[in-house]
């Protein structure tokens, strides 16, 4: 092994050769897909990361993607209100592919690509209200009666205990239900409707019929 190879992959090499026999590292050659190998060649043009519970994050960092950490952010409302609001936000963090962390992996994620809003998207505002996009200009996003900046809204996703419309792909009849969680791209609801608690499609219940009924 050359000095150049060792210096480039030092932390991964040190980890690999101190593991029990049969240890593997993730490798990516050029623009191919990642694969596990127990015989890394340490070519300088390849990417290598440690194979552990953080492997997916390590691979993302090696590919130049941004990692985010879920942190509690305190927003003060001043002395008059005499209270503080604690909310959770995803914050960009700088990590190397060989980082070591001792907290819950669920508090880290790969930063999602910026979503491009489109007409008829449901959105959630900073104050928690649900709205629907009517049209978009270069600078603003318009609903039926409000104007938003892109940084002030997020794409709507159902929250636990929220009332929603649900329906399945093979059925064109929607039902009102209470959302619980996601399960393998299915919407899990509190109620059992037609013998089913997992549904394909979901929209917010905001006083108008869902798109499938229009």
Q: Would you give an account of this structure?
A:
This protein has 214 residues and is mainly beta. It contains four helices and 17 strands. The protein has four domains: 3-51, no CATH class; 67-110, no CATH class; 122-155, no CATH class; 163-213, no CATH class. The chain has helices at 3-8, 10-16, 55-62, 78-81, and strands at 25-28, 35-37, 47-50, 67-76, 84-93, 108-110, 122-125, 130-132, 135-136, 141-142, 147-148, 153-155, 163-167, 175-183, 186-193, 196-199, 201-204. The strands form five sheets. Strands 16-15-14-13-17 form a five-stranded antiparallel β-sheet, with no helix packed on it. Strands 2-1-3 form a three-stranded antiparallel β-sheet, with helices on both faces. A hairpin with a 4-residue loop joins strand 9 and strand 10 (141-142). It is elongated and about 65 Å long.
Question: What distance lies between the first and last C-alpha atoms, to the nearest angstrom?
Answer: 66 Å
Strand content: 35-45%
* Shape type: elongated
State the strand order across the main sheet.
Answer: 16-15-14-13-17
Radius of gyration: 23 Å
- Helix tally? 4
Q: Helix- and strand-based class?
A: mainly beta
Which regions have little confidence, pLDDT < 50, spanning 5+ residues? 77-81
Instruction: Spell the H/E element sequence.
Output: HHEEEHEHEEEEEEEEEEEEE
Number of strands: 17
Number of domains: 4
Average pLDDT rating: 86
Range of helix content: 10-25%
Query: Major sheet: size, sense and barrel closure?
Result: 5 strands, antiparallel
Please tag this protein with its features.
mainly beta, five-stranded antiparallel β-sheet, 214 residues, 12% helix, 4 helices
